[in-house]
Write the structure tokens for this entry.
Amino acid sequence: MTRRNEIPIALWKRIEPLIPQVKPSPKGGRPRVSDQQALNGIVYVLRTGIAWEDLPSELGDGSGMTCWRRLRDWQANGVWHRLHQVLLATSPQF
């Protein structure tokens, strides 16, 4: 069962291969928010129109800043364009 603003598993399985893998930092640090969680947070912000810093932590999708950075990085790497094509071909709700 998915939350109201969560990307469905079947759709995530089509999107996941489009996102480049990131190696963990050798310096350690905080565990990375999964790409799936970050995408859920991005979609939540875009659907609701809230400010990035107002992304509710209760959703478990990372901070608004984390989601914004992931969106920025994906845009710079061309991921967002490829992801958009998959969404258009897969689901009329997007």
